């Protein structure tokens, strides 16, 4: 076995750290989670000169070793824990040549931990453009490190970096400056109390708000001859430390870096003048939104239709090729259509993350956050909540995954909880068929009533999201340090490799994460719809054949009657009958009940279920529609789908939490069943009440 | 005066930051006494504020900006 060394990539956000990671590992990377938390763990393998293999971890971006979020906490926890299997043999600090001063702060902190450290100065291709020149020899001496000047965009300097990683044993582990001089007496005390521990590590543990495994704050309180300081004093010391580090960095850069401002060009100012403008900024954002909406909605319908029909024919083919039996049916109707239900979302998810990662890579996303923060804050959301709420109109699943960059846990949680109210694409088929049934075809001011109803439903969804955010903000008592600092990075042309890898990785995460659950639910649903207790189900064929013996039905019609009879007496049919008393006040019968029950796997199942239950062989919309229009209310007489029950049903679907996949992803992101269960009960309960009131008022 | 009083395009020198109200992260990004700050752009209602502090571009909310004391820089 060749020896493997652990390499940790560390750096400020927006320094191109992930580009460096991608350049080193290529496709040899995988994304998982740190145990117990939803912070992403990216790791990969890189082959180095001299047969050395490097295991590379791309740690979450952080501005310093003072953690203020779960992501940043991961960095410190790893660097302080020498027993961790991922503890780095060498740390690679990635910096951006244009922001060297700020990037070096983190570098000097890591040097204090006595970890062999390489400094990567990235985006070297921008130096000429910005009029920057560096004295690398001087910097290497002052910073006691080796420097790799690289450009991931131009693919330069990567080999030098690999060489430096391979020869990491030659790196100095001496700190650049002595941070303990900020309060000599205090640090002397600390050293005396814990002679075996690294001083700077002790300091980090004392000043953090979070625990670090075995050495936490309590360790310090337990030692008698050591007195720790008050929080305010500690913060003052941290400020002093930061100033001290910047003094050192400023002195170092005074000789190590020259910036010729005359030759510097700045695209940023010109672009920002338009993109963050009070009028143009919002207008451009609106246009970008429409484009994304259009793409997710329209462009992805082509591959989605293709996937839909491919899986339908695959299922058909399986049925006709394999021998008849329960297994074939499970495979064809349960597993294959279940898989289809996962794969069909891939185009939308891929498109969504394509746009999101382009917007993020280019630096535009920070501008949107800047523009929207004030408006969103009124509702307890952050400027960063805009992205998930927009994505929610395609599908709540990627939208909830997109909340990850909201630092404040409270704002993030509220965003996660309200996103499912936005009208996702799965509600659309339900809305379309019911609107066609119950809303008259007239026009007002040239706009059709039906189109207006649909638009109103979208507005209701968005209103419900924002309104419930406002309420949640008032009632949720979560203490989370909410401060808002957004770096406004330089505009950059997105790197194709980064965008492609993001899209690939997010899509994979969806297919294997949420996919498992969708598949499991589909199989359960299939069982419930395919089996039933008692004679009525098991002898359906005999019963139906006898019943219609005199009517001379064609074989196809008879089969439909049998299927319909079976479904009525299957477990799911029984469930439909069981809940009928509860849904009758809303204007629904047991058949709609079944459709609602099966909708809990995914809303779009509604139309399909009704199609089966009304014994419609083909799923051509017109046919289902006519069938539905012909249904008679068993108690009141008259059409079952009238204005009152139709509106009631529309409102029910607008508010109810009927998507297992969303519940699953909420569980994954919040790490508890508590929040998805609240969503299920509160949203569906609210939907029930609204639908009830609407029906009783309208009838 | 505080950072919140700056007009768009104006510059100032940070003289004091109230460390109780200012997150450490902001200090680490260069928001420290002695550094030059410029108000690049403001959103409607002057909140949030888009700043250039010592070469770092960032946006903060007004509620944070009122805790950063500055004096105007005279060219």
UniProtKB/TrEMBL annotation, chain B:
Pfam families: FeoA. It comes from the Bacteria. SUPFAM superfamilies: C-terminal domain of transcriptional repressors (SSF50037). Keywords: Iron. Residues 1-72 form the Ferrous iron transporter FeoA-like domain. GO terms for molecular function: transition metal ion binding. Gene3D superfamilies: 2.30.30.90. InterPro entries: Fe-transptr_FeoA-like, FeoA, FeoA_core_dom, Transcriptional_repressor_C. PANTHER family: FE(2+) TRANSPORT PROTEIN A. This is Ferrous iron transport protein A. It comes from Winogradskyella eximia. The lineage of its organism: Bacteria, Pseudomonadati, Bacteroidota, Flavobacteriia, Flavobacteriales.
């Amino acid at each position: 076995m060749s020896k493997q060394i652990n390499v940790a990539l560390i750096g400020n956000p927006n320094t191109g750290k992930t580009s460096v990671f991608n350049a080193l590992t290529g496709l040899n990377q995988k994304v998982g989670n740190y145990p117990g938390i939803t912070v992403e763990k990216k790791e990969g393998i890189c082959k180095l000169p001299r047969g050395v293999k490097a295991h590379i971890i791309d740690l979450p971006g952080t501005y310093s070793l003072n953690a203020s979020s779960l992501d940043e906490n991961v960095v410190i926890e790893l660097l302080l824990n020498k027993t961790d299997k991922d503890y780095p043999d060498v740390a690679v600090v990635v910096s951006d040549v244009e922001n060297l001063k700020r990037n070096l702060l983190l570098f000097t902190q890591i040097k204090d931990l006595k970890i062999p450290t390489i400094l990567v100065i990235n985006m070297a291709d921008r130096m000429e453009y910005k009029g920057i020149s560096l004295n690398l020899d001087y910097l290497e001496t002052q910073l006691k490190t080796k420097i790799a000047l690289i450009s991931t965009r131009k693919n330069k300097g990567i080999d030098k970096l690999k060489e430096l990683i391979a020869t990491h044993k030659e790196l100095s582990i001496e700190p650049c400056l002595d941070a303990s001089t900020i309060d000599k007496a205090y640090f002397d005390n600390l050293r005396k109390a814990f002679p075996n521990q690294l001083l700077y590590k002790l300091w980090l543990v004392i000043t953090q708000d979070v625990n670090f495994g075995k050495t936490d704050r309590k360790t310090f309180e337990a030692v008698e001859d050591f007195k720790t300081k008050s929080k305010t004093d500690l913060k003052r010391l941290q400020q002093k430390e930061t100033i001290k580090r910047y003094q050192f960095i400023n002195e170092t850069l005074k000789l190590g870096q020259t910036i010729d401002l005359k030759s510097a060009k700045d695209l940023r100012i010109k672009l920002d003048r338009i993109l963050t403008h009070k009028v143009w900024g919002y207008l451009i954002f609106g246009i970008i939104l429409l484009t994304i909406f259009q793409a997710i909605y329209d462009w992805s319908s082509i591959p989605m239709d293709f996937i839909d029909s491919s899986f339908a024919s695959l299922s058909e083919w399986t049925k006709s090729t394999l021998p008849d039996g329960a297994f074939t049916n499970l495979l064809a109707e349960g597993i294959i259509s279940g898989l289809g239900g996962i794969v069909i979302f891939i185009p939308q998810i891929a498109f969504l993350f394509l746009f999101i990662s382009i917007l993020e890579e280019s630096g535009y996303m920070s501008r949107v956050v800047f523009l929207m923060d004030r408006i969103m804050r009124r509702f307890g959301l952050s400027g960063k909540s805009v992205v998930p709420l927009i994505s929610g109109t395609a599908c709540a699943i990627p939208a909830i995954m997109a909340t990850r960059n909201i630092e404040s846990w409270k704002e993030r949680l509220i965003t996660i909880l309200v996103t499912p109210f936005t009208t996702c694409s799965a509600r659309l088929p339900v809305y379309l068929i019911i609107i066609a049934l119950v809303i008259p075809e007239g026009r007002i001011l040239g706009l059709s009533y039906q189109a207006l109803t649909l638009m109103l439903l979208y507005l209701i969804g968005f209103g419900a999201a924002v309104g419930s955010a406002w309420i949640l903000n008032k009632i949720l008592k979560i203490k989370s340090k909410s401060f808002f600092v957004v770096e406004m990075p330089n505009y950059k042309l997105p790197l194709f490799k980064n965008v492609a890898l993001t899209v690939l990785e997010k899509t994979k995460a969806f297919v294997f994460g949420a996919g498992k659950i969708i598949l499991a639910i589909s199989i359960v649903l299939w069982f419930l719809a395919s089996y039933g207790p008692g004679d009525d189900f098991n002898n359906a064929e005999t019963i139906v054949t006898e019943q219609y013996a005199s009517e001379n039905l064609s074989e196809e019609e008879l089969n439909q009657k049998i299927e319909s009879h079976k479904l009525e007496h299957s477990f799911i049919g029984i469930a439909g009958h069981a809940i009928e008393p509860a849904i009758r006040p809303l204007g629904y019968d047991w058949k709609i009940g079944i459709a609602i029950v099966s909708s809990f796997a995914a809303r779009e199942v509604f139309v399909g279920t009704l199609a089966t239950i009304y014994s419609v062989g083909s799923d051509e919309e017109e046919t289902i529609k006519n069938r539905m229009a012909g249904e008679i209310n068993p108690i009141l007489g008259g059409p079952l789908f009238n204005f009152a029950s139709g509106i009631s049903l529309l409102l029910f679907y607008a508010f109810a939490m009927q998507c297992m996949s969303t519940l699953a992803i909420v569980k994954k992101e919040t790490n508890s069943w508590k929040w998805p269960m609240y969503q299920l009960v509160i949203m569906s309960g609210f939907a029930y009440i609204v639908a009830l009131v609407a029906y009783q008022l309208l009838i | 005066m505080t950072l919140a009083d700056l007009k768009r395009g104006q510059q100032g020198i940070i003289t004091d930051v109230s460390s109780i109200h200012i997150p450490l992260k902001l200090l680490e990004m260069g928001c420290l006494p002695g550094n030059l700050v410029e108000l690049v752009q403001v959103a409607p209602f002057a909140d949030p504020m888009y700043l250039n502090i010592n070469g770092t571009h960032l946006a903060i909310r007004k509620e944070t900006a009122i805790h950063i004391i500055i004096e105007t820089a005279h060219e």
